[in-house]
Design goal:
Chain B: Its main location: membrane. Chain B: Keywords: Cell membrane, Membrane, Transmembrane, Transmembrane helix. The complex is a heterodimer of chains A (about 180) and B (about 80). Chain A is an all-alpha fold and about 180 residues long. Chain A has six helices and no strands. Chain A is globular, with a radius of gyration of 18 Å. Chain B is built from three helices and no strands. Chain B starts with a helix and ends with a helix. Classes of the chains: A mainly alpha (about 180), B mainly alpha (about 80).
């Protein structure tokens, strides 16, 4: 197992591993605190809109698909295809954030704030931190689309897939395991 | 692997997640987390190009699997 066996820049994998660890720690903490009030956590979670999270999963994996296509296009020298792929991936990210904004607005209108219940503290922290990564990722995709260097596009796409990966791991504990 | 195939697999697994969300109980919870693991494996192998069967593949997938088992355990206690 050598560092050079990793696809892309090793530093990108350090970032991916560290981000996974941070989110895993947050989710594990939530699962631990849930033990003090399982019924309260289940009741709080039941107020979320799971269908919006499912929609966002579909949006994000589709966006990841376009990022992967962009990376492949860039490698074969198809600059237009790479830019289109990156733009569609970023558009997917914007769509994800729009759905999240609607979801947060609905939650807040229903009086579900960060201090309503410990579950919502974790909910806003974990999904908010993830949304911040999506926002940052859109910026990364835009930046790598300017110069279109293969290594940079690969790194940008890898960051985007990490954001996608975190979301699929976040979904069941935060939204579904009542 | 073909990117379109990976994407369709991920969409299919998202559909499975949505269906399982309506089923209560520890078995359904385990199934939900197993689907999340399959999605993570698809992203790691298909989109992030981590070579299946390699040491790095195991370095990511084994801890991830153990962690999901831990989350399931905390859920069913």
């Amino acid at each position: 197992m050598r560092l050079q066996d990793l696809p892309g820049e090793p530093i990108m994998w350090v970032l991916i591993a560290s981000e996974l660890l941070v989110f895993a720690a947050g989710i594990t903490a939530m699962a631990g605190v849930r033990l003090t009030d399982p019924a309260g956590f289940a009741a709080a979670q039941a107020q979320l809109h799971g269908w919006m999270a499912a929609l966002n999963t579909a949006i994000l994996v589709t966006s990841g698909f376009f990022a992967a296509r962009a990376e492949r296009a860039c490698r074969r020298g198809d600059r237009r295809g790479a830019r289109v792929g990156l733009a569609l991936a970023a558009l997917g990210g914007a769509g994800f954030l729009a759905v999240k904004a609607v979801e947060y607005a609905g939650d807040l209108r229903a009086g579900l704030g960060m201090e309503s219940h410990p579950f919502f503290t974790f909910y806003y922290l974990l999904t908010g931190f993830h949304a911040a990564h999506v926002l940052f990722g859109i910026g990364v995709l835009a930046l790598v689309a300017i110069r279109l260097r293969t290594e940079e596009v690969q790194a940008g796409a890898a960051f985007w897939h990490m954001v996608d990966l975190v979301w699929v791991l976040l979904l069941p504990p935060v939204y579904l395991l009542g | 692997m073909d990117l379109t195939r990976i994407w369709l697999i991920l969409l299919g697994l998202t559909g499975a997640t949505t269906a399982l969300a309506f089923v209560p109980g520890p078995v359904a919870a385990a199934a939900l987390l197993a689907v999340a693991l399959f999605k993570a494996r698809a992203i790691l192998g298909g989109f992030l190009h981590l070579e299946r069967g390699s040491g790095w593949w195991a370095a990511f997938v084994v801890p991830l699997t153990i962690w999901l088992v831990l989350i399931w355990g905390l859920h069913v206690i």
